[in-house]
# Entry
Amino acid sequence: MKGKKILISLGGTYEPIDSVRGITNKSSGKMGLALAREAYIRGADLTLVVANVSVEIPSVFDVVRVETGKQMNDAVLRLVPHFDIFISAAAVSDFEFKKQSNKKIDSSSSLFLNLKPATKIIRRIKQINPDIFLVGFKAEFNISKSEIIECARRQIEDAGTDLVVANDISKESCKFGSDNNEVLIVDKEVLTVPLASKNEIAKSILNVISKKI
# Structure
């Protein structure tokens, strides 16, 4: 990893409904930060694109702060041409509002939210930088191992990812915000990483990346 330029996105995006309310997810940024720390130890040149997180980001890292999915996408698209590796660990919203209010919506009546699918930024990365090593993350909920692998390989086919880290967040020890995880690292092969700390998971992921680049 020494001298490699690595871009890592982390955290959960926030999509405003009005001036005070919004929708988000429970991503903590712990996995992304664990990857950043391990890559830093291995000598990588790092930049982090950080959405909403529950962890403190050390000042040693070069950080671009974002909040919404669009801001995340804009920042990543601007940066990816200059990097060797992009690890897309952020939980970016799958939906965005067709229209949002710039004032607080009156809470005295029913509210219907009109959402549309958000642009999948990961599908544009290889178009911009064909040589980048692209790592995607795939969080699924209460499905079988074979289904998780199928979802990961579908992302590889659709987005051109070189590697996908997939897991089932329905498991009590692997929920968003947990300190531990168990993952499948998927490309042509499947590496099963049993329950371990996210620091240990990060080492396993970077070991695989190191062998591939």
Helices lie at 30-41, 69-79, 125-128, 145-159, 198-212. The first strand starts at residue 5 and ends at 10. The domain at 5-96+114-212 is CATH 3.40.50.10300 (Rossmann fold).
